[in-house]
Design brief:
Helix content is about 30%, strand content about 15%. It has about 150 residues and is of the alpha+beta class. A hairpin with a 3-residue loop joins strand 1 and strand 2. The longest helix is centred in the middle third of the chain and has 21 residues. It starts with 7 loop residues before the first helix and ends in a 5-residue tail after the last helix. Bound molecules: guanosine-5'-monophosphate (5GP) and zinc ion.
């Protein structure tokens, strides 16, 4: 199990710092995000230190995502939410601030006024259907399902 002594989430895993835990087993941990962007804001992490989606092992991903609906339903049962966003940031440009893979569960209460406001601008007018086909073909070439 990789452990980075400088990583805040590894410190939570090692119980060097406390966390409000929702779920724990040998491989995964879910706990309340200290920032509580919306009430019930929860994080799910692998116990193994894997920095981001690009480096996340597939079996770790499979296990974490198998827990995701259970965590989501537990949060849904407890809070009077009206929706939920799952969010994962990778690298600083994408607003990652803790470099240990984590999935945010963000309960939503009000579309415009509950604290969660992703920046989201569409540019569909700048891409033709042909552009999309071209991009899809390029990514498809890169896709390696054998590892
Ligand atoms: P990111 O910005 O990397 O997607 O998310 C990191 C999250 O970790 C932030 O929402 C932040 O509030 C949370 N966080 C940072 N330090 C701690 C901590 O010590 N305890 C808890 N529970 N959450 C933390
Ligand atoms: Zn870590």
């Amino acid at each position: 199990m990789a452990h980075d002594p400088d990583c805040i989430f590894c410190k939570i895993v090692a119980e060097e710092i406390p966390a409000a835990k929702v779920y724990e087993d040998d491989y995964a941990l879910a706990f309340m995000d200290i920032s509580q962007v919306t009430k019930g804001h929860t994080l799910l992490i692998p116990k193994d230190h894997q920095p981001n989606i690009f480096e996340l092992q597939e079996e770790t991903a499979a296990y974490l995502f198998s827990l995701a609906p259970k965590i989501a339903r537990a949060i849904e049962s407890e809070f009077q939410l009206e929706g939920m966003n799952l969010l994962n940031n990778n690298h600083e440009t994408a607003d990652q601030s803790v470099f240990h893979f984590h999935l945010h569960f963000l309960p939503r209460y009000d579309k415009d006024a509950d604290g969660y406001k992703p920046k989201w601008q569409t540019h569909s007018d700048q891409y033709t259907a042909e552009d999309l086909q071209h991009m899809a073909a390029s990514v498809k070439k890169q896709l390696d399902l054998t590892t």
